[in-house]
Write a structure and sequence with these properties.
Pfam family, one: SBP_bac_1
InterPro entries: Bact_solute-bd_prot1, SBP
Largest sheet: 6 strands, mixed
Radius of gyration: 21 Å
CATH architecture of the largest domain: 3-Layer(aba) Sandwich
Number of domains: 2
Helix content: 40-55%
Keywords: Signal
Order of helices and strands: EEHEHEHHHEEEHHHHHHEHEEHHEHHHHH
Shape: globular
Number of helices: 19
Protein name: Extracellular solute-binding protein
């Protein structure tokens, strides 16, 4: 599951219009007030201003928090209470199954949304993942997370490792070659190779056809050999001192980019904004993105926009959600913050193909991720407690190993925690 986060984990309310403090249904004027709840960086700030300019009868307030986990915790609490939800609620793929299990609490966008937001807009697997098991379209797809690898060219070069695009392909050809390169890097520099074990583990995990659950929603953490294999590989890398032992998206992790605390990090498209923001202007041109990814890449991340039944303006909310997930808007969101479009026309667009990011050593990020996205034909199935297992079970278990717990004890902690979460 993707954990798209802000530079800080402090909850904020961002008003995209010219007014502040206005809630939905404000009776002070005749305008329609809509609210949208997101997490991390969707790249919607300027888009929401544009929408209000083009729709002067609409005022939009964006509620944005840093992390996916607290956003969804609050969402489920408000669903249970029957009140308090925003007109549009963003859903991250790791929590999709939990939302689909409550699909009766959401509008069917195929019935209330505009006609041009049909299935041909999205990659087929992305559109299908927005539907509940009974065929109800609960969410419009926003982005996807094709996997690349980001690395510091200057730090690899200083360690005597290849740093050019062709040279790093051998380093990132497989997880074995990646960890072997990391051992060499640590031996030559005495510094960590990657930022955090949780990021590495999550990327590895998302490459498998079967993850924490099988298609029948049966928990398979203890019986899936791929999960244990990934665990063993990552915890061995921890033992080899390849991890900087940072908590993903925490304050020290954010500072680690600026202080050159690690040389590589897994880099789904939505990570680009975080790298630039956290690394700062002094490191411009030092980070590079490689399309080579261990064992062939995959998808990590992606979200959806939903309209809960609680919305007082469902039709207008659906129209805004459809507009935000149209190809032209998703391209602008990618340029602004990095979430990569899931729309067919966007992927084929010369505008996207020619999009560059001057912060990176090889700025042709649009074409690079578009090529990776075209290779994706499906995403890993996410079961009922998938997001909770990733964020609240495996992440702390890996962090415990980084702090000295044995890999065997950490594994038992993870298995037990997953079983508890799945009840």
């Amino acid at each position: 599951m993707r954990q798209r986060l802000l530079a800080t984990a402090i909850a904020t309310a961002v008003v995209a219009g010219l007014v502040t403090g206005c809630g939905a249904g404000d009776a002070a004027d005749s305008k329609i007030h809509l609210t949208i709840a997101t997490f991390g960086e969707f790249g919607y700030e300027d888009l929401l201003k544009q929408y209000q300019t083009e729709h002067p009868n609409i005022v939009v307030t964006q509620h944005k928090v840093g992390q996916a986990a607290p956003h969804h915790k609050e969402l489920f609490t408000k669903l249970a209470a029957g009140s308090g939800l925003d007109d549009i609620e963003a859903i991250e793929e790791g929590y999709r199954a939990q939302v689909m299990a409550k699909s009766d609490k959401f509008n069917d966008l195929s019935k209330i949304g505009p006609a041009d937001a049909g299935p041909d807009r999205w990659l087929p697997w992305k559109y299908d993942a927005g539907k509940s098991k009974d065929g109800k379209l609960v969410g419009y797809g926003t982005d996807i997370g094709p996997l690349a690898m980001c690395y510091r060219t200057d730090m690899l070069k200083a360690a005597g490792l290849p740093s050019d695009p062709d040279g790093v392909k051998a380093l990132f050809a497989s997880w074995q070659s990646y960890f072997d390169a990391g051992k060499t890097y640590v031996q030559k520099t005495g510094k960590p190779w990657f930022d955090t074990s949780t990021q590495i583990f999550n990327a590895m995990h998302n490459q498998h056809d079967v993850g924490y659950y099988d298609q029948s929603d049966t928990l398979v953490v203890a019986s899936n050999p791929d999960i244990k294999k990934d665990w063993d590989a990552v915890t061995q890398a921890i033992a080899d001192k390849e991890s900087a032992k940072l908590v993903s998206f925490g304050n020290e992790w954010q500072a680690g980019f600026k202080t050159s605390a690690f040389a590589t990090t897994v880099c789904p498209a939505w990570m680009l904004g975080s790298i630039e923001q956290n690394s700062g202007p002094d490191n411009k041109g030092k980070w590079a993105v490689s399309s080579a990814f261990p064992d062939g890449g995959g998808n990590w991340g992606g979200s959806y926009l939903t309209v809960p039944l609680q919305s007082k303006h469902p039709k207008e909310a659906a129209e805004l959600a459809a507009w935000l997930t149209a190809p032209q808007q998703q391209i602008k969101a990618f340029v602004a913050k990095g979430p990569f479009p899931s729309q067919v026309q966007a992927l084929q667009s010369p505008e996207l193909q020619n999009t560059t990011n001057a912060y990176f050593a090889d700025p042709k990020t649009g074409a690079l991720y578009a090529e990776l996205a075209k290779k994706l034909t499906k995403a890993q199935y996410k079961g009922p407690a998938d997001g909770q297992i990733q964020d609240d079970v495996f992440a702390p278990a890996l962090q415990a190993v980084e702090q000295g717990k044995s890999a065997a004890d950490g594994w038992q902690q993870a298995v037990a925690g997953a079983q508890k979460a799945a009840k």
